[in-house]
Amino acid sequence: MSLPSPAPPLSSLRHAAAAMTARLPFDPDLGHGSFPVRLLLPVCIALAFMARLLYRHLRDPLRDIPGPWLARYTRLWLYLEIRNGRFHTKNIELHRRYGPIVRIAPNEYSIDDPDSIRTIYGHGTKFIKSPWYTASGPPSQHEGVVVSIFSDRNPARHAENRRKVANAYALSALIETERYIDSTMVAFFQHLDHFASSGESFNLGNWLQFYAFDVIGELTVRDFELSCPSALIMSTLKGVLWAHILWIVWETIWVSR
Fold first, then answer.
1. How many folded domains does the chain comprise?
2. Which pLDDT value is given to residue 219?
């Protein structure tokens, strides 16, 4: 009669388990095999994002409109072109290559067709202004806040406010304002003649801004005269612009939450 072999001591079992674990191809960072487990979540997110872009592209009824390949899926192409200051020339090249309608972002198109102006911008058009106009409006554009006619994206509200100021843009009213604009134009040309005769270099953009500033002053205040250095005027205008931009960022990030 054979007796059962005695159970191995506990210390021997621990050594055997440790030896088996050492032979398994498992690593906390690599998992079973060579693919890192910690990269699994980022890869899944990237694949889901790419699948979403592809699905949106295939479902787009305007997917056949030509344009840069990257512009079909993201606004990154448009951002980079504007960021590098070459979009205005690149857009002309795209129209020469592809025709009157060019895709510049997933849901944004550039149209170079004079016959389409009335269709897109005409009275009663079905085309609604894009979010691009928001930056040109007042800082707060919540419900109940007065918005500018230029930046208002609500067609019904825009039409109602437009009727209130329509008389100011009638031909008879515009003719009455000609003399104020003409006097400012004469002063502007005098400055240009001075620069031309003296050979002095100047910033044309700044002087066009001065001209527009003076015309608005003449039309609204009359006998408008601002006696301060031109550099101070430009710095003030830029300061107001940056304050406006910062307020829009604040509204977008915090107030609208």
1. 3
2. 81
